Input
Amino acid sequence: MKHVTVFCASSPKVNQTYINEAASLAEELVRNNYGIVYGGGALGLMGSLANRALELNGTVKGIIPHFMVEVEWEHKGVKDMVHVNDMAERKKMLVDEGDIIVVLPGGIGTYEELFEVLSLKKLGQIQHPIIIVNTNGYFNHLIKALETMIDEDFMRQEHKSLWHVANSSSDVCKAIDNIPAWSEDAIKFAAVK
Output
């Protein structure tokens, strides 16, 4: 079984559309026999993702730092829960445990996770497909910023292949099947020359 690492928000205050999209992603992944690895939270998109996957008897693994457990952010229904020391260890394990990375809308934590994996992939340190789910055009400005980096020669044209944009969760598994492989030799064209 391949595993999909999902980065997403934990805020329960966001528009219900985003929370529903997380549940839809869980349905799509479970239906296509992917395991889910996520940040271990019980609320917001995180909670919706885990709850729906568990309802469907999907495989869910959570990874959460001790301080979040202490403030009771941990999802109690996820049996495969790993406690780590800090955010850096959590992020490394989230990347290491997944074969594919899917990014749903989120705040600065989600953005930070996305930019780290984009950077690692650009440097050939990971080869994971990275899929950004652009629910309601949430990531439009971010995608434009990434394209501007390329247009202004801060990255190469080849780097447009670092990520793939899906308009909804229903497009994610099709995208996984169609994303071209990324080479560990990517570091050869990581620098802009």
Summary: The helical segments are 16-31, 44-55, 66-70, 87-97, 108-122, 140-151, 172-178. Residues 16-31 form the longest helix (16 residues).
